[in-house]
Amino acid sequence: MEWTHGFPADWATGSLEAARLLYRLPGSKGLLKPGTKLGDEYHKLALPIVRLQLARAGVRLAWVLNQLFR
Fold it and tell me: pTM for the full model?
């Protein structure tokens, strides 16, 4: 699977890019401020990204563990 290609530093860079997407108000370039109330619009934007990142993390963890315990 291609999610296991690259190096952990590459994986971290991808996670940083996802985090930067999620740290913005939907439909603007404005950054979220501490205490900002997140509504449905933000959740609709964020949920697919969060799910994808969790899936990638699970696959990568499984791959690393398989490499260690072969």
Answer: 0.81
